[in-house]
Amino acid sequence: MPFSLSDHPDLDVRAQAAVFETASLADVLVWTWEKFGVRAAIGTSFQGSGLVIIDQAVKLGLGFPVFTLDTGLLFPETYELKSRLERHFGIVIEAMHPEQTVEEQAGTYGPELWRSNPDTCCAMRKVLPLQKKLAGLDVWITGVRRNQSDGRATTQMLELYEFDKLRARHLLKLNPMATWSREAIWDHIKREGIPYNALHDRGYHSIGCWPCTKLAGSGEGERAGRWEGFDKTECGIHTFMGANI
Ligand code: SF4
């Protein structure tokens, strides 16, 4: 059944987001599990913050489903990490796939769509598969943090989120890492021995599809190196550019 805020008359999203500002990650996740159970799911591209959420949830025995967007264009190191994480945590990470393979997309739109029109490429390979997944959820748990970029600086801990503008569909977006720093995340990952993407040790900050991820300089922002050469900092899954293609 689609999510509707009217089914939760006791929930004031803004007030709850304010409460979460000073709550621990564990308390936020327990609240979410008790209220929504498996209707809340962790979406991860295996960046550091997502790994901390999964680690905390597993340690607390909270059985949130975990999913990722497999664009078919991820680094070999990312696919290898997915398998390592499944073994480490004893979980299955569901992979959401685009309708077209990379080859089929090239037949429809021309080769290397990420070079000619990365917005359409992201819509096909990320936004639409994610919309399909979110349609069956009440809560999307993300690893978005405020200090990742200017565009993410106003991220709230809990938001009512329109994930499908065409159909005016909403769900709750939980951003329990919003207030965390990069340093705190990596302290946690190293301390708890959580597997992470080997590309981080080679200087990559934010890791996405291989055609759109480049090495960033040490003084650059956390999302530097993504979509180099384009005025683009988001793939659309956190902004939803209206995937009406
Ligand atoms: S990040 Fe690049 S390759 Fe991946 S879906 Fe977006 S445009 Fe395509």
Which bin fits the share of residues in helices? 25-40%
Radius of gyration: 17 Å
Number of strands: 6
The separation of the N and C termini measures 25 Å
| Helical/strand content category | alpha/beta
Average pLDDT number: 92
Please specify the SSE layout and strand pairing.
Elements: H1 13-20, H2 25-36, E1 40-43, H3 48-60, E2 66-69, H4 76-89, E3 93-96, H5 102-109, H6 113-116, H7 118-134, E4 139-141, E5 158-164, E6 169-174, H8 182-192
Parallel strand pairs: 1-2, 1-4, 2-3, 4-6
Antiparallel strand pairs: 5-6
Helix pairs in contact: 2-3, 3-8
Key terms for this structure?
245 residues; alpha/beta; Rossmann fold; six-stranded mixed β-sheet; globular; binds iron/sulfur cluster
Note down, in words, how this protein is organized.
The structure is a single chain. Helix content is 36%, strand content 11%. The chain has a single domain (14-203), classed as 3-Layer(aba) Sandwich (Rossmann fold). With 245 residues, it is α/β, with parallel strands linked by helices. Strand 5 and strand 6 form a beta hairpin. Bound molecules: iron/sulfur cluster. Iron/sulfur cluster binds at residues 71, 73, 114, 118, 121-122, 125-126, 208-209, 211-212, 235. The site of iron/sulfur cluster has 13 residues, from helix 7.
